[in-house]
Amino acid sequence: MTRVPIPPADAERRNTVCQFCIVGCGYRVLKWPEGREGGPAPGENALGLDLREPLPPNSDWIAPAMHRIITERDGRRFHVAILPDGRCSVNHGLASVRGAGLAQTLYAPDQETKARLHVPMILGPQRHERTSWWEAVDLGSRVVKAVMDRWGPDTVGMKFFDHGGGGGGFENNWAVGRLFFSGIGTRTASIHNRPAYNSEVHAAGDAGLAPLTNAYLDARLADTVVIVGANPYETQTNYFLDHMAPNLQGATLRSKQAAFGAEPVEPGRMIVIDPRRTMTVAAAEAAGGADRVMHLDLEPGTDIALLNAIARVILDRRWHDVDFLRRHCEWQTFESYQRSTLQVDRPAGEVVAHAARRCGIAPERIREAARWIAAPKPGGFRRRTLLHYEKGLIWGLKNYENIAAIVGLGLLAGNVGKPGTGISRLGGHQEGYVRPPYPGGRPALNVDESVRRGEAKVFWVGGCNPVLTTLRAEAMERALKQRGRIVTDALHATHGAPVGERVAAVVEAMKRGGMFILVQDIYLTATARHAHLVLPAAQWGEMNLTSINGERRLRLYERFMDPPGEAIPDWAIAARFAKRLRELYLDDRNPLMANRFLDFEWRSDEDVFIHARYQFDGGANDPMEGYAGVTYDLLRRLGNEGIQTPVRMVNRVPSGTVRLHEDGRFFTPSGKARFIPAPLPWPGYGAAFEAQRRRYRFWVNNGRTNHIWQTLYHHRHVPFYRDRVPLPYIEMHPEDARSLGVEPGDLVELSNDVGTVRATAYPTTAVKRGHTFMVFGQPRGAAGDLVSDHVDPTTTIPYYKGAWADIRRIGPQPGTRHVSFRPQNVAG
Amino acid sequence: MTEEAYGSGPERHRLTRRRFIRTTGAAGAGAVAAGMIPSRAAAAGTGTAGYPVQPIVELSALAPETTVPFTYPDDRAPALLLRMSESALGGVGPDSSIVAFSTLCTHKGCPVSYRPEHRLLICPCHWSTFDPAKAGGLVIGQASQALARIELRIESDMVVATGVDGLIYGRHTNLI
Ligand code: FES
Fold it and tell me: Which of A101, A237, A818 sits opposite B89 (nearest CB)?
């Protein structure tokens, strides 16, 4: 019978934050030895609850998924329960589907997570073979040094996490940044999901805005929340459920009255700009009623036209915030924005009608959206609108102009730096970005190209899986396989030879096009399979780490268990390589190079944090990063409430920042925000996409979904999640499915001029006819196989949502009998 | 009913069906008089390991797309029996169309309700959505498991509850 053991009253307690999405919900960790159990009376258990009676709704119930038995390195076994923290103001005790299963991701030798990497490995003749840390670090460092010395630092390519949460944290990010930027000095760097090392929101930065301006509280206070290209019910779950939905329901009216005094308040409204009718739309309607939710289901790639048309209506109706524009914006940029972006030389009706045709949205709805965003409230009070965007815009047609459009719309009506407002990305993963400056310029080097073309001689991948997630994924894998093979042969030929000889052979192989591949990760990923060296990393819960969430809330994620086998934190891996490189350069009598690898002598997670902290004191140039006075001890005291960055010393006390730009200052030399004028009202698809669009029948959108995190690297080892998405699914309109003879659950093949991929059909009216939506990054089928390697030349960000393909039915897919294909967007 | 050879199939589903075979195999041990009015009175016979055997409704009274609320395994555990118009995983009766679930949402314990137009059980609190034809599995939403499934069998003309597969919200064990 299913039974969850009762944690005893003296169970060990730790605080942590969910390792997954940007929202960063607080969780409590309870740990106690196997063989012991608490009692059901309130005084007998760590929950302090009477478990002799069923708990009422919204209690601290430990679901079976929240519990696991773990084994430490010394063989001792413990119960671990991880449950949502009712005292955390981010989630108030709510778990998401992903967070509720955190315990299922813990390493356990008798569960599927035993697949974790335990020991360093080198690619042997047949398969990966165990090696020692010393040998792995020595060989890897010698190869890196040989490549740097012969071809220069830019031939050492890297693709690494830059996350907070499970993907990294400040500690690991700082160490990785120091190794690659201060030490090696390569510009051939890229961030986990994209070809280059760049911001995804350059335009916001150029406008002087921080990427994450608002507090989650603002979603409770806003009159209108605008969501562009994002699906927060599924992918920023508790931000939606615990902050946005209560506002739509009218449950936050008292907070609004308390904050705004005489200003009239009412339940919030929501505008969702997304080609799909997502669960967010359905849940928002269930929460607030259909008349308070507006869904603008635009055609792909037309966001710029839509956002700018809404802005034009606002300007025309004179709903813009003249006072804010005069005092806090660079007026010259506002003038050019009016002319080139809002096309004030043309009649508003014509501009709106033109945009409406382009976007497939009726002109009245564009006008109505403008009203919801900026029409003054009774008494002449300004409407408070919170604008959020994410990958639909970031990975849309033109990254830079897309972001410029939403930023312009936000600034126009003064919606930043005030309660209930903000212009922020919603975020995907958590943030923990502290690194020395990237040595390259803008636009950044395209690492994927460098790997494919043969310029990178070393490719070092950490905590990401480009074989599944990059664009033109098949070509990436081919490069890893073919170029890696040349080095593999050299290693085999010198098996057992002294390391110097092996390195010489590797260098010779590189002259023939070979590439040496290192992967540090927690599982043997599809990318790691091609690696010559595989380095086992510790994960969340196995080290202390710090990160911020989508409202910049900095917390300590406490260590509560050992990493498996010989796995160590990523920062420690970076430090071992740095130390070895330093020794090798000292042996070479090259103190100049050796000194670039100084100061990696960290003894603990906190040492790394403190080292990083000194570089980020919250000065004028750090929009979000500022950790003045923060220590692990302070964070332990603050628990899951943490403190919002930037943290600055005020009267010698570390003080957080609830909301950015409240002082009316922006991160530009003038201190004023800038509009970024668009060269054209709508840039067009560009020749390659236009050709694809004409040639193939279906638009293939892609994105993340409710149950699974990223590439399922954990979730493929947890049946509950894996069984929901055993294959990538593709949503298609039921009539389109019918026309192809496709039944729910059938296997279909998508193909275009870039590649081919298979998926399971999920017919649903969530997508319009001719549109489809495919799960991103599923290990058994990568949407990236269809995406061309085109990038926005201004930012080196791909148009990841831009793929068109034909679809054909393969046949019924066995093994999907247990999978539900009922609608995912019904709600109330 | 045969086991599917599907490597990554749902653990719970496999378990469910093994258990289902076991319980139906035990039928006859607890014959319930036909025509008996559904009641909370303990019926004769055995359920799964300590669970009461409880008659719910007469099969002949159960048209397709009907629902019958009841409580199980005790009166603090609301549940819902459904006769669907399609066959359901783990279902009993005609075309395996009869299933029953605890209605306490496995997210935070709000009561789910059946939406016939979508053939889904939906929770009003955070909109977790469960498919009764797929063993109560989570279609979308924030619960970390399927709805606790009430194990059923048919005895004469009576649908009888015999056990619970999965933990009911708010309990560390189903029989508290
Ligand atoms: S209680 Fe049912 S979805 Fe939260």
Answer: A818
